[in-house]
Structures are given as C-alpha cells and as structure tokens.
Design a protein that fits this description.
CATH superfamily of the largest domain: Cytidine Deaminase, domain 2
CATH architecture of the largest domain: 3-Layer(aba) Sandwich
Strand content: 15-25%
Order of helices and strands: HHHEEHEHEE
Number of strands: 5
Helix content: 25-40%
Strand order of the largest sheet: 2-1-3-4-5
Number of helices: 5
Number of domains: 2
Length: 191
C-alpha cells in the first residue's frame, strides 16, 4: 500500500495501534521460545516502520516548506537520507524552491539501475517552469554506498546548471546520498 495516500490521522492511528494478538499474552517471565518472531510479526513491524518513515518524511517536508531550506541544511540532509533509505536503484530528485528558498515541491524525476540513471535536462527545465521555481536543488543516491561524486555527476550538474540558467533558474546545490553519508557539491565548490 502506498503510505503517501493515507491521511496523517490514519498513519498515526496505525502507528499507535497495538499489534494484533496471536494467542495468550506473554509475560516477562515466559521463556524466549514462546515469543512469536514469525513472518506475521515481521510484516507488522515492517509496516509500522513504513508508517513512521512516511510521518517523518512529511514532517521534514513541512519544515522545508516553512522557510528557507538552507537555514536548516540538516533538515534537507535528513529528508534526503530518509527518502533514499533502502533504495536499491539510483533515483534523481529535484527540490523546486521559491526565490526565498522555501520548498515548492520535491519530485523524483528519474529512476535507473544499480549504478546509473538517465537524466534529461529538458524535463528538469519543464518541471521548474511548471512550478514557477526560481531555485532548484538536485539529489541522487548511490546504492553502492560510496557517496563520492563521479566525473559524470559533475558533468551532469554543469549541464543542468547551463540549461536552467537559460530560463533564470539557479542551481543551489546537488547532493549525493549513500546510506548515512550525504555529500554536497556546493560545500566542495562544484556548483
């Protein structure tokens, strides 16, 4: 089920609801062999974790929409880490921002394979114009776990920057996410 379609109240209710009982209640003195660690409990835990992830993503997105995102760069990094967590293929995400750097919308435009994704500058420019964005931030993940930007990543950033410059949209940053590591192109002078 797509968690993004559920209301906040539904998500909170599901997160806080007690797990379904599968027999008599267990007590602290019961032997470990009585604890059920079967697939049903694993599925319930996985679902609760998905619900918690969706709530966190929404809260972080709301904070990015409330004001200039770069006044709280850790919020952006946390959102990106959480968004990319567990992905086994590359994705390319664009954060469309107002002139005051508040988030308009975060859009996953492209999805690829384990090692690459194709990004089309025309689609990024169309997305910026459709949202009336003044500024953009790019992000893509490296499922390999290695966060260092490649030469292809640097070239792509410069290509996108040139295309967006033609329509007066500024590139603020490009992040590479690999597990818990987030590398900023701006911090390295690559934007």
């Amino acid at each position: 089920m797509d968690m993004s379609t559920l209301s906040r109240a539904d998500l909170e209710s599901e997160l806080l609801s007690p797990p379904a009982s599968s027999g008599p209640a267990l007590r602290a003195c019961d032997s470990e062999s009585r604890y059920d660690t079967g697939p049903r409990q694993s599925d319930a835990l996985a679902r609760k974790l998905c619900v918690a992830r969706e709530l966190l993503l929404r809260d972080l997105r709301a904070r990015m929409q409330a004001g200039p995102i770069m006044t709280a760069p850790q919020v952006v990094r946390d959102w990106l880490r959480l968004y990319c967590a567990g992905l086994e293929h590359e994705v390319f995400v664009v954060l469309y921002l107002t002139a005051q750097h508040a988030l308009i919308e975060a859009v996953q435009h492209f999805s690829g394979t384990l090692a690459q994704t194709s990004v089309y500058p025309r689609e990024v420019v169309k997305g910026a114009l459709a949202r009336n964005a003044a500024v953009v931030v790019f992000c893509h993940n490296h499922p390999s776990g290695h966060a260092e930007p490649s030469r292809a990543d640097e070239f792509l950033t410069q290509t996108l920057k040139s295309a967006l410059n033609m329509v007066d949209v500024r590139v603020l940053d490009h992040f590479v996410v690999a597990g818990d590591n987030v590398v900023s192109f701006a911090e390295r002078g690559l934007v």
